[in-house]
Amino acid sequence: MSNALSLYSIAQEHRAMVEALTSTDNDAQTIPDAIEAEPSPLEDKAQTVASATKNHEATAAAIKAAEQDMAARRKAAENRAMHIREYLKTCMEVAGVSKIECPHFALSIRNSPSSVDVFEPKLIPAEFLVTPEPPPPVPDKKAIAAALKEGKDVPGAMLARGTRLEIR
Fold first, then answer.
1. pTM of the full predicted structure?
2. H/E element holding 143?
3. Could you say which DSSP state residue 124 is in?
4. What does the DSSP 8-state code read for residue 161?
5. What is the rounded distance in angstroms from the CA atom of residue 60 to the CA atom of residue 57?
6. CA 3/CA 49 separation, integer angstroms
7. What is the pLDDT along the chain (168 residues), one digit of tens a residue?
8. How far apart are CA 154 and CA 149, in angstroms?
9. How far, in Å, CA of 13 to CA of 21, rounded?
10. How distant is the alpha carbon of residue 136 from its chain centre?
């Protein structure tokens, strides 16, 4: 067999070999001996695929860490810009200057649009209150699992067991 075969093809060939050995009248020791004696690239190919998986997982983790670092740096830069902008505005107000022009941009202090300042929420009449919709109920999977493990019947739910590949 060549290394150009896919892992799936190799797995099918390996399974066919095992089925062929078990379908004949061999004793219990002949089958494992024949499987070990037959050169199978399944383990080599599986190791290669597992290595590729680990590399992709490491790359994804590094990207995630970089995203978090970049988000923190972005937030810090935004905060610095906001503080510097506020500092500049305060200095212009203290100096009594409302407009500065230069070749790159123009600075001017403007009145912001009116905004509502709710200083005592309890005094607001009911007609001006918004009641948010409650979130829809969601199944409590831990309680359902506990009930099913105790042998209770939970309509619409069952315990399911899948498989996963662990690479250490």
1. 0.56
2. helix 141-149
3. S
4. -
5. 5
6. 12
7. 445 678 778 777 777 777 776 677 766 666 667 666 666 677 777 787 888 889 999 999 999 999 999 999 999 999 999 999 999 999 999 999 999 999 999 999 999 999 999 999 999 999 999 999 999 999 999 999 999 999 999 999 999 999 888 888
8. 11
9. 12
10. 24
CA 108/CA 100 separation, integer angstroms: 6
Q: Which residues contact 43 (CB under 8 A, 6 or more apart)?
A: none
Say whether 112 sits in a helix, a strand or coil.
coil
Residue position matching structure tokens 């199978």: 40
Q: Rounded to an integer, what distance in angstroms lies between the CA atom of residue 161 and that of residue 149?
A: 13
Residue 161 is encoded by which pair of tokens?
């067991």
- Exposure letters 78-88 (e unless 16+ CB within 10 A, then b): eeeeeeeeeee
Token reading at 145 = 């699992």
